[in-house]
Amino acid sequence: MGEAPRVQGGLQAEIMTVLWRIGAGTVEQVRGGLPEGSGSAYTTVQTVLNRLAERGLVVRTRERNVIVYQPAMSEAEYVDSALAATLDSASKSARRLALARLVGRMGAGELDELRELARGLDKGEPGPA
């Protein structure tokens, strides 16, 4: 998979989080899933969704008389792409230090899960989305 366009700004991130959680939705469904008190108007959410679609992060489909939006990739695929792009642009020492810090913040249970996931990926298993 190539590098995914980056989410830009807080509202785009919140909208993508909602879409990853609900899978697909109309403007009103996405708006309803935003954090309490975000106060984003219908037209603002619609504009952001359309911009995300133009950039390839969201897919639009017409279902009868409404537009339904869904993520173009899973959250895991997006994070993988963003991390890979960031790490690829870093020096070897910076890359190792960043990865060591990420792993260092994990609890023992998470590390065991990560090892198991890595073994599965080595065997060609797809892993969770």
From TrEMBL:
InterPro entries: BlaI_family (IPR005650), WH-like_DNA-bd_sf (IPR036388), WH_DNA-bd_sf (IPR036390). Keywords: DNA-binding, Transcription, Transcription regulation. It holds the Pfam family Penicillinase_R. The keyword DNA-binding applies. It comes from the Bacteria. Belongs to the BlaI transcriptional regulatory family. This is Transcriptional regulator.
